[in-house]
Write a structure and sequence with these properties.
three-stranded parallel sheet, six-stranded mixed sheet, 3 domains, Calcium-transporting ATPase, transmembrane domain, rod-shaped
Length: about 450
């Protein structure tokens, strides 16, 4: 800035860094604008104030200036050229005007969201440009840092070797005074350890880490365009709580795929084996399930099954489990147990009805045998209807009805399947090769279907 006596340079920045550039200090701006040389007593007092501010979660900023009679840029040609080559010569012998502490209060719900992430098996780390003390205070306030965790300066972290870095990273919770390159190094190191890494950021200096991460979250309100372009997801409300929602919906989508696969495989195994065995055992090589009936079963499996599986909103309990590793199979051991158990139960029951129903129910007439074939089809469909509830859980939790009242589409789909099956049995007739069933036969079908709920 040009003044009456020449030029004045203003500067601001991290207090502990800027103090090293100062040789003068204004003692009392209100009464006396003259400066005095900074003594060791001044430095002790100023550093104590910086630490005091930092421990109260305040970001400390020093305001400096320097008066010059002329700008020393003639040798370089232009001021910009001089700043590239002679910045250190210009940025020295500064006068300290003030040190201020700025508080950036935590958003409402941040601490609770961090706790939810930690409960879900997600390790939350803070990588910041703030000094060590400020970073530690904010991290403790957020619930990120505990007494057993490690805090490091970014410059020290970048000097570590690969072996030492891999040893430290599992305990590292806060990285202070971090550069863009330091953030990127941390992300790559975590990925090499087999971790799935998500990064949040809003500034241009966050772009390298956002681009390197498996998932990058940028801020929609305060984020720079560079950060938004480098990220995968833009948080429109700049709220950390939205990340928790993203995790919940991500797990819900993954679960929906698994639910649908579990349902599809179970139905296909039972349908294929039942059709094959009944056709091979028949003198006329006719399957107990006709082609039209199998089309209805496929409609239940594909369209309605997919809709019912995909419409479950994520429950809060979805965050109570640990995240799946990269190597986790799409079909888990628990799912295979359910698939095999359901398939075996269906096949045993349906084959007994088909081959032993005449003796069990004392059916002798041709009309009763036609009812028996229809009862096999009806029982099979009711097993799929009730199995939809089993597939709402793909873990070992027995509460298959959790959150069902929040998913009216699932209830509607199941009711439409029930109504469709009743209509098919009552009026399907020759078109669907079914006959009407009596009350007892309806009861057998529904009860045997209900018993598939495990």
């Amino acid at each position: 800035v040009q003044t009456e006596h020449g030029f004045r340079i203003y500067a601001k920045g991290a207090a502990e860094v800027m103090l090293k550039r100062c040789t003068q200090i204004l003692q009392n701006v209100a009464s006396d604008a003259s400066s005095t040389a900074i003594t060791s007593e001044h430095m002790i007092h100023l550093n104590r104030n910086i630490e005091n501010f930092a421990t109260r979660s305040l970001r400390t900023i020093a305001l400096l200036y320097r008066d010059l009679q002329s700008l020393p840029c003639h040798a370089a040609g232009t001021m910009n050229e001089f700043l590239k080559t002679g910045f250190d010569d210009l940025f020295k012998d500064m006068t300290l005007l003030a040190i201020v502490g700025i508080r950036d209060p935590l958003r409402e719900g941040v601490k609770a969201s961090v706790a939810r992430c930690q409960a879900a098996g997600i390790t939350v780390r803070m990588v910041t440009g703030d000094n060590l003390l400020t970073a530690k205070a904010i991290a403790r306030e957020c619930g990120i840092l505990t007494d057993d965790d490690l805090v490091m300066d970014g410059q020290d972290f970048r000097k570590l070797g690969v072996v030492e870095m891999n040893r430290i990273i599992p305990r590292l919770q806060v990285l202070a005074r971090s550069s863009p390159e330091g953030k990127k190094i941390l992300v790559k190191a975590l990925q090499e350890l087999g971790e799935v890494v998500a990064v949040t950021g809003d500034g241009t200096n966050d772009a390298p880490a956002l681009r390197t991460a498996d998932v990058g979250f940028s801020m929609g309100l305060t984020g720079t365009e560079v950060a938004k372009e480098a990220s995968d997801i833009v948080l429109m409300d700049d709220n950390f709580s939205s990340i928790v929602k993203a995790v919940m919906w991500g797990r819900a989508v993954n679960d929906a795929v698994r639910k649908f696969l579990q349902f599809q495989i179970t139905v296909n195994i039972a349908a294929v084996i039942l059709t094959f065995v009944s056709a091979v055992a028949s003198d006329t090589e006719t399957s107990v399930l006709t082609a039209v009936q199998l089309l209805w079963v496929n409609l239940i499996m594909d369209t309605m099954g997919a809709l019912a599986s995909a419409t479950d909103p994520p429950a809060e309990s979805i965050l109570d489990r640990k995240p799946d590793p990269r190597s986790s199979p799409l079909i888990t051991v628990t799912m295979w147990k359910m698939i095999l158990a359901q398939s075996i139960y269906k096949l045993v029951v349906l084959l007994i009805i088909h081959f032993g129903g005449d003796a069990i129910f004392s059916y002798h007439s041709e009309g009763e045998r036609a009812q028996l074939r229809t009862m096999v089809f009806n029982t099979f469909v009711w097993m799929q209807i009730f199995n939809q509830y089993n597939n709402r859980r793909i873990d070992n939790n027995l509460n298959i009805f959790e959150g069902i009242t929040r998913n009216w589409l699932f209830i509607g789909i199941n009711l439409s399947m029930v109504v469709g099956q009743v209509i098919i049995i009552l009026i399907g007739g020759r078109a669907l090769q079914v006959v009407r069933l009596n009350g007892a036969q309806w009861g057998y079908s529904i009860v045997l279907g209900f018993l598939s709920i495990t």
